[in-house]
Amino acid sequence: MILVTGGAGFIGANFVLDWIATEGSPVVNFDKLTYAGNPANLASLKGDSRYVFAQGDICDRKRVASLLQTHQPQAIVHFAAESHVDRSIHGPGEFVQTNVVGTFSLLEEARSYWSALPEPAKSRFRFLHVSTDEVYGSLSSSDPAFSETTPYAPNSPYAASKAASDHLVRAYHHTYGLPVITTNCSNNYGPLQFPEKLIPLMILNALNGKPLPVYGDGKNVRDWLYVGDHCAGIRAALAKGRPGETYNIGGNSEKTNLEVVHAVCAILDELRPNSLITHYLSLITYVKDRPGHDQRYAINAEKIRRELGWEPQERFEKGLRKTVEWYLSNNEWVDSVLTGDYRKWMDSNYAKR
Ligand code: NAD
Ligand code: DAU
Fold first, then answer.
1. Ligand 1, closest atom to CA 83?
2. DSSP state of 102
3. Which of 89, 142, 145, 153 could be stapled to 137 by a disulfide with Cβ–Cβ 3.0 to 4.6 Å?
4. Three-state DSSP class for 15?
5. So what's the pLDDT on residue 42?
6. Residues with CB under 6 A from ligand 2
7. What kind of fold does domain 2-194+223-254+293-315 have according to CATH?
8. pTM of structure
9. Which of 51, 113, 158, 247 is catalytic?
10. Which residues are within 8 A (CB) of 228 and not within 5 positions of it... i.e. 6 or more apart?
11. Residue 196's pLDDT band (cuts 50, 70, 90)
12. Is residue 152 flagged as an active site residue?
């Protein structure tokens, strides 16, 4: 049994599905179901006795303690977070609450549960903290990629809140001996991603004939990783990672935002031609830049390759095509997320750009 937090979100849901398909052991998914959490992501597990859903907030320590006592997990895999940089610029408070206070609450309850475990369960227990490459700040085009020893320099409220949570996780290992592992991953893409993030937003806007809003000059670089590869990296870290260590996970696939948007448009031109729009890239619209926009992220994933034998398997071109195909063939899911709240967010982030 493992306890996953935030398993109704994009990566968490992919991880739960992947875990049950590959490991086959039970999962408790503890999720608050914020705007980003969607039970439909796990609809295929309905009736599967290996899957238990518990709705709640990671800041609720009593609830966390009771879940740990009831289910006696051998590991906690901690995804739950506020995850969107633009939202952290509009309203940083929730990011501090969930990402910092929430991670602290979880660590405290995990420490208390783990301290009382008998051997060998105690030695086997792991707290795996899922974090981001954004904690390292921004690279110039000539800088080497982020390694595990790159100094932290977070630039957005989101990145700062994740950095703070990473520091707490580290401190719980060094001070209390809690067997933690932190993974710092680059930009994920794939099925089930909420369409506030670049790739699904561009796919859905294009399909609806709406502008494709590229921030600034579109030359910012991200290192794209297919979500299934991220899930495999987390499983490897859980199985073989050394407690107290951090592992960078990346796709070795740096692209400018414009390259990504062009690639999405080319796939849509082929798979869903629209007689009113000759080429989807005619919808590209340059808009006001994100404040404090990091120029480039790139991950050096040599440590996880060397120590745990993990490498990304999916090439960007193929992974992106699979992703576009998924959005094209899941209309019900798409319609269910394009709610009034989503439209409000799109208005508040894009209308005045
Ligand atoms: P997401 O926003 O899609 O999902 C977050 C999930 O956490 C949702 O299901 C939400 O309901 C839940 N949640 C939020 N606040 C909660 C709370 N207080 N208590 C319980 N549940 C809560 O996020 P994602 O993109 O799947 O990211 C998952 C994790 O991976 C995050 O920690 C993020 O920082 C990290 N990460 C994301 C990426 C990426 O590209 N998306 C890359 C690297 C790391
Ligand atoms: O690097 C890992 C991080 O990747 C994760 O920790 C975050 O949770 C995740 O959201 C992601 O952060 P980014 O800010 O890089 O992702 P986003 O999809 O928001 O933006 C990707 C790039 O595209 C970024 O340079 C901003 C740009 N962009 C984004 C949106 C939403 C646009 O040009 N237009 C847009 O409308």
1. 2
2. I
3. 153
4. helix
5. 98
6. 83-85, 132-134, 186-187, 197-198, 201, 213-215, 220, 222, 257, 290, 297
7. Rossmann fold (3.40.50)
8. 0.98
9. 158
10. 14, 18, 190, 313, 314
11. very high
12. no
